[in-house]
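Minutes, project huddle
Topic: does the predicted pose make sense with phenylalanine bound?
PN asked that the exact inputs be recorded in the minutes so nobody has to dig through chat later. Recorded below.
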Amino acid sequence: MQRQLNEQSGEAKKHGLAADDVQPHRPDWTIDQGWSNYSVEEHAVWRTLFDRQSKLLPGRACDEFVEGMKNLPIGPEQIPNFEALSEVLMKKTGWQVVAVPGLVPDDVFFDHLANRRFPAGHFIRKPHELDYLEEPDVFHDVFGHVPMLMNPVIGDYIQAYGLGGLRAKELGVLDKLARVYWYTVEFGLVKQADGMRIYGAGIASSFTESVFALDDLSPNRIGFDLERVMRTHYRIDDFQESYFVIDNLDELLALARIDFAPVYEHIKGLPEHQPGTVLATDRILSRGSGRYHRQKQEIEQGGTSATRQS
Ligand SMILES: C[C@H](O)[C@H](O)[C@H]1CNc2nc(N)[nH]c(=O)c2N1
Ligand SMILES: N[C@@H](Cc1ccccc1)C(=O)O
Ligand SMILES: [Fe+2]
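Predicted holo structure (tokens), as shared on screen:
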């Protein structure tokens, strides 16, 4: 599981590269991927992540994800080369993958997306942090996001988000727009003929959340509603308590095309919702018990007999 947005400020945090890894970046924050510099150990971390995730995703990831992955030069042996990815992507949907050192400032991020460049972290997590990291690394960005960029609808949607981001910043409503990205591109679920599937990169790249999001009774799964999502906080430190579900990917295209300005205006000053809240107006597809988050809270407060012993 990884969490890359700072909901409060929406600002990029300082990246945490090792001192010997610092590379000056260009004004658009891109750097060279430096593919030949990856060590044997780094490629091995990729393989570990790739193998365990490839076993989990059949039957869990949506068909478009599986299809995208199949046609890309992404495999277990090595960390993918961004130039090779871009060549295939460019032909299919006109996207490129560019390397960045970590989180980049919002306007830089939006400008890349608006120009169909996907900024991907060039570094890979360390062997002791396979399941948790604070910034998007090459595994999250490439394994999680790039397969979906092979889909024309998602390609158009993410470009439109970049353009919408620049506008939302002007209007001072970036936090509202960021929630739409979070609950679609990062943590979205989609209905398919044979059941609910993952299309969000934050789930697809997470060993634990790709199981939790679909199998566990804990989270709520709620039909996507734009205003509802814009008013809903999200968790950056744990699994989501609620996921929002679209009926098909084309629903995103409609979102990309409508003007959000009147929606921002309409929800101004209206109350916001906590991540785990279920509303009377929600279209509930499955309602979680909240068991996971409740138990965790108890443990943190030292309240259960199991944790008090020792
Ligand atoms: C709101 C916006 O989507 C978000 O804060 C941005 C900031 N910078 C980023 N930078 C990178 N590299 N990746 C990201 O997902 C983001 N997200
Ligand atoms: N249509 C939105 C922009 C947007 C596109 C795609 C995803 C999310 C938002 C707007 O008018 O601002
Ligand atoms: Fe991401």
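Observations noted during the meeting:
- The beta strands are 96-100, 117-121, 189-192, 195-198, 220-223, 242-246, 284-286.
- Residues 28-308 form a domain with the Phenylalanine Hydroxylase fold (CATH 1.10.800.10).
No decisions taken; revisit at the next huddle.
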